[in-house]
Backbone:
């Protein structure tokens, strides 16, 4: 006999159905963080800008806002949200007809907004263009116009735990991009690093999660492509891509890199900081964090093969077409793109300028000023063919496929040709389906 | 008539909340699942294209298989563990309060915190478990890069997080078991195992049914633990339907496709609940 004090079956079923509905919605129907009020323009005539910001970037952005207000009288209200939520916050504003006036966006995400007609065309683009490095300018430009300014860039280099590599007898590290280790020299150097602890490894690449696209550095270094020349399909059986698959999988096969440094694994910078790995690829924006590691480290250039190549990091500032204050918003991003402002921001935030006329050597970097010139030189290896492939409108889906398929490729047993096909088939599937 | 009006007036707040926070978003999710929405700009109506794409998506099927497997493993084990612990804690024992706290704490604190603790415990480079195993000379699983080990670590943390609910509900239900009935069974010569199997267990059936439904639903919604511990890796070994829906909806900007996966999760859970209910009713009718 059922206990009368316990819930009846019908009541339980009803509760279960309601919970199922709520749960399913939380999985598929929420799709937003931050309410519409978070992203609305202020009624006092100020501009609203959604951004993420590190501890060093937040005051640098505030300084830009303060300077703009001093010059024009227009206040820019910064809404700083976590990096993982910034696009959701922007999208929510767009969806609810209460968009921000401007926002910060990575180069790999610009095209998705551009293709949907969300971004305002820069009216003084022709005047600004000559001042910018072409690779970055092309990231915000298409046949219809220029939709934002390339605010800054960052790129990866090899950071090395000084103590861990001291006994490897590596000799002087390459001092220029032209002298960078070849793939073979790089693998040889990693093989000579003797782990200082039983559980440590030589190396971790920074291709985890949203950084999966950085694997394309290897493809570009080998002279290969992921996408076809017209950027509408995958480049099948590309020899350079196959070489990249072979080389990067060998890092796992030879146990030079830990298995959990795979594409869905632990961030390379974390593995470097907790000294699980002696060397890692790391962007300049991480230098402040690496400085807190409590050990000495240095940096050298990414390895090269047919080409020297590096990843397109950094972000653009964009204005929203639907903003009621579009003109002022465009005025602000043009203001931020001026040489003086860009230099000050880059120095404070440990990132690199995208203008030709901002001499990085003249910037007083707050963190590791000795390494920043190396990053500046590494950034010159960012190549336009690679940039074109990572700024296509569907790149978010491509990047997610890269992460999932690379994880399978790195940890799987397929032969290299099959592994490459697994990867390209995955990317092709999101180029052709909804 | 007046009685009906009063009933509906009292139901109105709940119906309003259900409509606003459940029904409306559910309809919205179904609508989005029929489009090629990227989350921004205008979306095109694509009919059932997202659902047909799902049929040929190996990652979707893998995530579905993983989700079902996780439910098949974790739900029965949670029930058995919960009942076992509840039976142990039913009587006043020294430190009983502490044990209750240990089992209940993971259920009431943030899933992210539980998952973070699990991640540190099972880290294959610096985790406590591997260090203990190394100290005693036992093999150390690669919790983040071996698919089976990663799945096991997720199940273990999930059990830790879930058992508290089963313990609390079974403890409550056990208090409702009539002592006279148990005494009568004992006088009739029933052994402790027979009393548990033939007297207590049938009386706990409504609680077990409720727990089963809730745990299955929760398993289909598991996100935080997997996301923090493995992000669905390695190589998709711990990818679940909800993490895949999130990945597609947000990371890949395929909001329509992500919504379609969410709708499928909803339909499957609802169908499973209905089937379980019918089976339960049939077995009660036989009694």
Residues:
């Amino acid at each position: 006999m059922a206990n009368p004090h316990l819930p009846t079956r019908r009541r339980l079923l009803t509760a279960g159905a309601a919970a199922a509905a709520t749960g399913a919605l939380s999985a598929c129907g929420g799709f937003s963080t931050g309410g519409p009020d978070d992203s609305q323009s202020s009624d006092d005539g100020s501009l609203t800008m959604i951004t993420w910001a590190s501890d060093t970037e937040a005051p640098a952005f505030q300084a830009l806002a303060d300077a703009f207000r001093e010059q024009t009288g227009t206040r820019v209200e910064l809404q700083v949200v976590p990096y993982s939520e910034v696009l959701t916050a922007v999208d929510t504003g767009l969806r609810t007809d209460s968009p921000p006036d401007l926002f910060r966006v990575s180069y790999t995400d610009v095209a998705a907004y551009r293709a949907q007609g969300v971004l305002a065309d820069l009216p003084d683009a022709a005047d600004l263009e000559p001042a910018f490095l072409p690779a970055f300018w092309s990231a915000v430009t298409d046949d219809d116009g220029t939709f934002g300014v390339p605010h800054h860039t960052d790129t990866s280099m090899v950071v090395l735990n000084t103590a861990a590599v001291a006994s490897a007898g590596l000799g002087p590290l390459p001092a220029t991009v032209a002298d960078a280790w070849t793939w073979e020299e790089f693998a040889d150097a990693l093989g000579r690093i003797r782990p200082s602890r039983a559980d440590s490894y030589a190396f971790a690449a920074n291709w985890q999660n949203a950084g999966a696209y950085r694997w394309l550095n290897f493809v570009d270094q080998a002279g290969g492509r992921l996408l076809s020349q017209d950027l509408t399909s995958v480049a099948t059986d590309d020899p350079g891509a196959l070489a990249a698959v072979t080389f990067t999988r060998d890092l796992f096969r030879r146990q030079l890199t830990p298995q959990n440094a795979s594409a869905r694994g632990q961030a390379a910078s974390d593995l470097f900081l907790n000294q699980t790995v002696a060397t890692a690829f790391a962007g300049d924006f991480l230098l402040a964090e690496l400085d807190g590691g409590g050990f000495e480290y240095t940096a050298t250039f990414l390895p090269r093969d047919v080409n020297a190549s590096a990843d397109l990091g950094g972000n653009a500032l964009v204005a929203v077409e639907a903003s009621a204050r579009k003109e002022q918003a465009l005025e602000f991003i043009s203001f931020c793109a001026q040489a003086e402002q860009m230099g000050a921001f880059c120095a404070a935030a440990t990132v690199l300028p995208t203008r030709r006329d901002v001499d990085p050597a003249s910037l007083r970097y707050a963190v590791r000023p000795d390494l920043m010139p190396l990053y500046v030189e590494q950034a010159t290896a960012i190549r336009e063919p690679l940039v074109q492939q990572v700024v296509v409108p569907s790149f978010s889906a491509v990047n997610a496929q890269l992460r999932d398929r690379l994880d399978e490729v790195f940890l799987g047993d397929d032969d290299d040709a099959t592994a490459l096909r697994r990867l390209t088939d995955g990317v092709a599937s999101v180029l052709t389906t909804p | 008539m007046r009685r009906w009006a009063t009933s509906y007036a009292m139901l109105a707040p709940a119906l309003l909340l259900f409509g606003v926070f459940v029904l409306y978003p559910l309809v919205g999710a179904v609508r989005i699942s029929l489009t090629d929405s990227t989350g921004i700009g205008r979306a095109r109506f694509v009919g059932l294209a997202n659902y047909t794409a799902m049929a040929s998506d190996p990652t979707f099927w893998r995530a579905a298989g993983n989700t079902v497997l996780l439910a098949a493993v974790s739900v029965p084990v949670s029930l058995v563990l919960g009942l076992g612990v509840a039976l142990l804690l039913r009587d006043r024992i020294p430190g009983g309060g502490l044990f209750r706290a240990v089992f209940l704490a993971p259920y009431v604190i943030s899933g992210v915190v539980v998952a973070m603790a699990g991640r540190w415990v099972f880290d294959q480079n610096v985790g406590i478990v591997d260090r203990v195993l190394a100290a005693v000379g036992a093999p150390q699983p690669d919790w983040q890069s071996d698919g089976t080990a990663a799945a096991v670590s997720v199940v273990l943390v999930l059990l830790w997080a879930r058992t508290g609910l089963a313990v609390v509900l079974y403890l409550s239900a056990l208090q409702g078991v009539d002592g006279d009935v148990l005494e009568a069974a004992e006088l009739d010569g029933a052994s402790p195992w027979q009393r548990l199997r033939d007297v207590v267990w049938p009386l706990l059936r409504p609680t077990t049914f409720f727990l089963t439904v809730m745990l299955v639903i929760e398993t289909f919604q598991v996100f935080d633990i997997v996301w923090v511990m493995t992000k669905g890796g390695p190589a998709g070994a711990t990818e679940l339907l909800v993490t895949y829906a999130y990945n597609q909806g947000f990371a890949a900007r395929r909001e329509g496709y992500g919504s379609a996966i969410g709708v499928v999760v909803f339909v499957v859970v609802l169908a499973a609940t209905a089937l379980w209910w019918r089976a339960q009713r049939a077995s009660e009718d036989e009694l």
Observations:
- Residues 1-41 of chain A have pLDDT under 50 and may be disordered.
- Residues 299 and 404 of chain A are 29 Å apart (CA to CA).
